[in-house]
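Notebook, p. 212. Picked up where the previous page left off. The plan for this session was modest: take the two constructs that came back from the sequencing core last week, fold each one, and keep the raw output in the notebook itself so nobody has to go hunting through shared drives later. Recording the first one now, exactly as returned: residue sequence, then the structure token string.
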Amino acid sequence: MVKIVIDAMGGDFAPKQQVLGCVDALKKDKDLYLILCGDKEQIEAELAPLQYDKARLEIRHTTQTISMEETPTIAVKTKRDSSLVVAFELLKAGEADGLVSSGSTGAVLTAGILKLGRIKGVSRPGLCPAVPNNRGTATYICDCGANLECKPVNLVHFAIMASAYAQCAGVKNPKVGLLNNGTEDHKGLMLQQETNAILKTVDCINYAGNVEGRELMYGDIDVMVSDGFTGNIATKAVEGCGKAVSAILKREYKRNIFTKICALLSGGVIKNIRKGLDYEAIGGAVFLGLTKAVVKGHGNSKAKGFAACIAQATAAVREDLVGKIKGMLDSVDLDGATAKANEVHQ
């Protein structure tokens, strides 16, 4: 039985959508147990009309909530009875195997580092979402917003951890690319140039070199490595593009009687396009580098998206993502790789 603890009060539509997502997840996975942290009265009110296995769901009452506007470090340290902090305390104590929250990204990262800590050898944890691509699969990008300023060592660790995550998700020998403004070795700032040189010497990953932004959705790589600032812009642009395409299709098919007839005839194609661009159906972003599985859902996640986040966390536990990351990190002599890269780079 995999136990996942839920921050039921984090997110724009909490706790209603969180509760609906939890019930959906329980129906899909009979070997799943959920602990919902939050206001017991509100959660029970949302659960009342629903059918679910009561033996696999429990509520831990909390009296506080961390909002998106609060300073993460202060909120995590002072709001000890918040749904997020209590959830992390339960995870740390071993009462759960993984955690899911759609709350403040900064608060989740802060609580993760303060309460759980990093895997030994990890310079910084990274946010790694799965982005739908033209192949009908997903491309994993790390980092997408946890670390705005990075050093080469951070990006190397992102590449290793995201490769481990892709492998746990079923990708054999995932192909890794470094997000840059061109594919040539001399392109990019010093951060990209130095990182590219080091990654070429890391044997535990399948590194393909520099890649441009279009490769995120329209390419053959499985993992894209980036600093958090650039990665966040890239993923948000992709989300906006998906919504724009859906809106344009809807508008154009409603233009006149002929386009409406075309819409009826191509309804299946339109549905598949929307499904292929639905990033929420894939889930949220895994916080790679923490000592246990933590998934950060979109702040505006609805039930479907939140259920997908729970499935992500459950899969990370079952596939021993943390153990795989540890093993890959232990196999890398980063000092030696850096020295070798410097010789080549010079």
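Okay, moving on. Second construct, recorded in the same format:
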Amino acid sequence: MKYAVQAARTAIKNTKDLEKNENTIRGYLRDSLFVNNKDLRLVLFDLLKRQYEVTNEKMYRSESIDTAAHSRVGKRLFLAAESLDSIDARPNSKGVSSPSYRKRNSQYLTQYRPNMLKGAIYFMSRKQWQDAWDQLDIYLNVPRSPLFSGVAQDTTHTDFASFLAVMTAYKLNDKNKAEKYLSQAINYVPRREFMLRKIAELEVAQGDTAKYVDILTKGFRYFPQSEHFFPRLIDYYIGKGELKTALSFTDEAMQKDSLNPLFLYAKHNILMYEKNYGEALLYGKKVLLQNDSLAAPNYNIGYIYYLRAEAAMANRDKSMRQRMKEAQKQYKKSLPYMERYRALEPDDAERWRPILYDIYLNLNMGDKFREIDSLGN
């Protein structure tokens, strides 16, 4: 081991065989006997430091360099410093921690921290997502690291870098990585909606329903009028049979925009599921006032009036004449909506045919009754 350290020190002075000596030192560090050896950790850091500086000098002289290789050396440099610090900062026999290299190394590395962000952008432009993540993870972890506790860090680009980290994690299909910096990335306003949409996709694809719903809720709160978050949130709660929760989100949305057709339709739909037909009728008509080409509200309104006609016929407290009169009134109200639904959804005969059959029959609409009766033959 002593020979390896001496050879490494010589390489650092001569700037020759730096990578070869780095690999030699790493070989020793993989041995459980040497993994916590401070001297080896220190020489590894110095080897990487010199490699990094050699390339920086080339850049200063406007010489061409291998940007990817340089960025990867930077990653290894920061990680080596962290490993050295974790050993160097261990408490002594008296429980006192006094790291010898922390101040020097943290001050040295802070000047190169922006290069991690630049390296990440470089790798992202080439779709090398794991390399990009490695650079961003180091860049964002610096302010959290004990190694840098005594050095103030620039936070100007933290939100942007967090956004990049989340999107890189999305490309890696790694939800744990995405969640690591998500709370910070949300602060990056220009791409907040896009990012939340992508992470929602990632969560549902990996089967984490709770996180999926949480992201949809965040998205809805930030972007209540987005046609992405609100409908999926409502569909989820309707699918779970949690109609009151779905309705509460709809009412919250309508407080922000009471005329939004998306919100009106959602409320109409939920009320239909609840069989609250009186209010469902009211909101269905509001929806159609804005767009009468929506099939479902036309069917629902026609169906509500049809049910009222059926209820009128079944009311034994009134005479047959009264029942027929009230039923025909409701059939007439149902008729235009159900015919409109038929025009919009001609292939859905299983839904509109039996209802129109009864309407035409009870309203004595001979020609139309014969036409629809023939469809059943």
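Notes on construct two before I forget. The two ends are 94 Å apart (CA to CA).
Flagging for discussion at group meeting.
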